[in-house]
Design a protein that fits this description.
binds ligand F0G; Rossmann fold; 6-stranded mixed β-sheet
Length: 367
């Protein structure tokens, strides 16, 4: 499909990778397609799900860096306590590096190769760095990951194990992000991370949910939020399938954060602008004090009549154990969405009666 990059703040357009943020106002960019140029192959609907299927919806010519990401299971679990609810879990932990991040990395690394880069850098709380390091290694390019020096040691070890360079940052994710962006502007490395190309790869999770439910839209989709890239990607993917009349309505999206790091929940519920929150949570994956795609995330929630809920760390840990008892292995950040569902269900059982609920289980790399 033909596209331009459009600023999410002031709508200024750029032809292609001119920058990772708008040169005029500093906001993040988005890929804005000319949908009249979309060509779907005959038999598209019947094709097996997985990121390669969705190439016509992606801003790349091929998906040369793909390592088989996507195509994860959507399993219905009968849990006696929630017996009136059709409860599905989308296990993104089945991706090559055990998180949904691989969907975005396949697109970003492909784009880096198409543009002739031999090096990428990114800021991460861990999973994204690990995913990019793995994809970069397979593509034969170097990777540097900026990460909080007191971040999850197992994740840091695995990033190094994939051959990437670690830049240990004193400070939280947002400090790592500042350092990575400053470094990128004075180096010849391709800046990856929670920006426009990644968002495109991650929207494929929405297509898969729609297809796995035979185009019957669920009533709710619960997901954890850090930078809100996945949230805004999910919304974009759903809207694209609506536009193609593959689905006929949108689900309510429920964004979940830890009580110890809840900038999006605060802003959405108080109808305020997003402010920075100093992260303090066991869910290290989603310890993001100021979400990069926060404004777009809030739009996704308000346009789907969705909710933003916070859960205490104890609830996240309990949910992680509960998932384990169902045979679903996840880290704390990956269990947050289920914790959000459990909390909301306690407060409003009737709302969920007879409803179809999809819970994203996003990662499994803590230990
Ligand atoms: N779940 C997991 C397991 C994650 O690693 C992340 C984000 C999220 C959910 C939230 O997604 O940021 O798009 O809202 N991890 C990033 C990282 C920040 O660097 O790995 P988001």
């Amino acid at each position: 499909m033909e596209y331009v990059l459009r600023c999410t703040g002031c709508s200024l357009t750029a032809r292609d990778y001119a920058s990772f943020r708008c040169k005029r106002c500093g906001s993040v960019l988005e890929v804005s397609y000319d949908y009249s140029t979309l060509v779907l192959p005959a038999g598209f609907r019947g094709e097996r799900i997985g990121s390669r299927k969705y190439l016509p919806f992606l801003p790349v010519r091929s998906l040369s860096a793909s390592l088989g990401e996507g195509g994860t299971a959507l399993a219905c679990k009968r849990i006696p306590k929630y017996k009136g609810v059709n409860l599905f879990f989308k296990t993104e932990t089945e991706n090559p590096t055990r998180s949904f991040k691989d969907r975005g990395s396949a697109v970003e690394i492909t784009r880096a190769l198409e543009l002739g880069f031999d090096r990428i850098i990114c800021a991460s709380t861990g999973n994204m760095g690990m995913s990019l390091a793995h994809y970069a290694k397979h593509a034969g390019i170097r990777a540097t990951v900026f990460i909080n020096r007191s971040g999850n040691p197992e994740k840091i070890r695995r990033i190094r194990g994939f051959g990437a360079e670690i830049k240990a940052v004193k400070g939280d994710f947002n400090e790592s992000l500042r350092e990575a962006e400053a470094y990128a502007s004075s180096s010849s490395a391709f800046l990856c991370g929670d920006y426009h190309y990644r968002k495109e790869g991650q929207k494929t999770v929405a297509y898969e949910i729609a297809e796995q439910l035979r185009y019957e839209v669920p009533d709710f989709i619960f997901l954890p939020v850090g930078n809100a890239t996945l949230l805004s990607a999910l919304y974009k993917g759903l809207k694209e399938y609506m536009m193609l009349s593959l689905i006929d309505r949108l689900p309510r999206i429920v964004a979940v954060q830890s009580s110890g790091c809840d900038p999006l929940v605060k802003a959405y519920n108080r109808k305020e602008k997003i402010g920075y929150v100093k992260p303090s949570t066991v869910a290290d994956a989603i310890a993001v004090g100021y979400p990069t795609f926060g404004t777009e995330g809030i739009t996704a929630l308000s346009e789907t009549k969705g909710y933003a809920v916070r859960v205490p760390d104890e609830g996240i840990i309990k949910s992680m154990r509960h998932l384990e008892s169902l045979g679903i292995y996840t880290e704390a950040g990956g269990a947050a969405a289920f914790a959000g569902f459990r909390n909301m269900y306690e407060g409003s059982k009737r709302v969920f009666n007879g409803k179809t609920v999809v819970v994203l289980v996003t990662g499994n790399n803590e230990r």
